[in-house]
Amino acid sequence: NTLAIIPIISTLYHPRSTEAATKYFLTQAAASAMILFSSMINAWNTGTWDITQMSYTPSNILLSLALALKLGLAPAHFWLPEVLQGSTLLTAFIITTWQKLAPMSLIYLTMNNLPSAILLMLGLTSSTIGGWSGLNQTQTRKIMAYSSIAHLGWMATIASIMSNIMIMNLVVYLMMTTALFTSLICSKSKTIQDTATTWTTSPTLTIIMMLTLLSLGGLPPLTGFVPKWLVLEELIMQNLIPMATAMAMSALLSLFFYLRLTYNTTLTLPPNTLQMKFKWRFKPIMPFMMVTLSTLTIFMLPLTPLILL
């Protein structure tokens, strides 16, 4: 998986893309080595090589940290924004969606053995740092990187408590991120300034992008409200009220930069004066996947009872 994505990151031959590919390779190689080392320590002490049956505590702690590094959970998150910034929008989309499936499946398989306290702390740290660090960003790829870190924090928080909510959270995250990245690719928006002139290419695309951003922020009645609501409800049922309060407060940090992007996208329309050049009015190509996923990203909240069943 890692070796396959490196040529894709290096497609545009540029020092930034070469640096991004190198950082990605070194990070993933180190995380994979840590996973193998944790398995070896467990086999040495217990005699079993099955990674889903690890009972040696130091091995489980090392495995948790390795998966955090592989996913980009804070405090091992510094590589993710830099790698995304050195990649194209399409490559950044692949890294934040498809590349998260393997580590998340490992968490799902080993969550009974992973220390709950470490997962909760990783989740809270990721949600807070993901929201805090995204406040001063101007590049959409870095904003999406910190958005990914924050959402992965919510998944790590609930992983040791209820796996079904984690899976649903992952599916909704993949859906929303895919919808937003396809919108950014269609509008060629690499910076916040670019989003301010999206309406010149397609007003429909502008509205879709605005609603997708609000859904990522977790505002009702949009789909993104569902996973946050269920995670907070489950934390309160487990009597982790301070944790639920801290997670809810950290979500407000992420919501701020989503609202800032929304303001630039939809509220800088005429007769307001803009300080940037308009884009050429080419006919936008709106893929069927983007339309479908955007619809699900916006209107899936009424289906929540069916999902829970």
Automatic annotation (TrEMBL):
Q: Broadest EC class?
A: translocase
Keyword Transmembrane helix among UniProt keywords = yes
Highest taxon of the source? Eukaryota
Q: What is this protein called?
A: NADH-ubiquinone oxidoreductase chain 2
Q: Which InterPro entries match?
A: Complex_I_Subunit_2, NADH_DH_su2_C, NADH_UbQ_OxRdtase_chain2, ND/Mrp_TM
The membrane-topology field of this record reads: Multi-pass membrane protein
Domain NADH dehydrogenase subunit 2 C-terminal positions: 255-308
An example GO BP is: mitochondrial electron transport, NADH to ubiquinone
Q: What is the protein's known function?
A: Core subunit of the mitochondrial membrane respiratory chain NADH dehydrogenase (Complex I) which catalyzes electron transfer from NADH through the respiratory chain, using ubiquinone as an electron acceptor. Essential for the catalytic activity and assembly of complex I.
Q: Which Pfam families match?
A: NADH_dehy_S2_C, Proton_antipo_M
Q: Show the PANTHER family listed in the entry.
A: NADH-UBIQUINONE OXIDOREDUCTASE CHAIN 2
Which EC number(s) does UniProt give?
7.1.1.2
The gene is ND2
The record lists the lineage as: Eukaryota, Metazoa, Chordata, Craniata, Vertebrata
Catalyzed reaction equations? a ubiquinone + NADH + 5 H(+)(in) = a ubiquinol + NAD(+) + 4 H(+)(out)
Q: Which residues form the NADH:quinone oxidoreductase/Mrp antiporter transmembrane domain?
A: 4-253
- Please list every transmembrane segment annotated in the UniProt record, as residue ranges: 24-41, 61-80, 117-136, 143-161, 167-186, 198-220, 240-259, 285-308
Q: Which GO terms describe its cellular component?
A: mitochondrial inner membrane
Q: Which organism is it from?
A: Anolis cristatellus
Q: Which GO terms describe its molecular function?
A: NADH dehydrogenase (ubiquinone) activity
Protein's cellular compartments = Mitochondrion inner membrane
Instruction: Identify its protein family.
Output: Belongs to the complex I subunit 2 family.
Keyword annotations of the record: Electron transport, Membrane, Mitochondrion, Mitochondrion inner membrane, NAD, Respiratory chain, Translocase, Transmembrane, Transmembrane helix, Transport, Ubiquinone
The principal location of this protein is mitochondrion
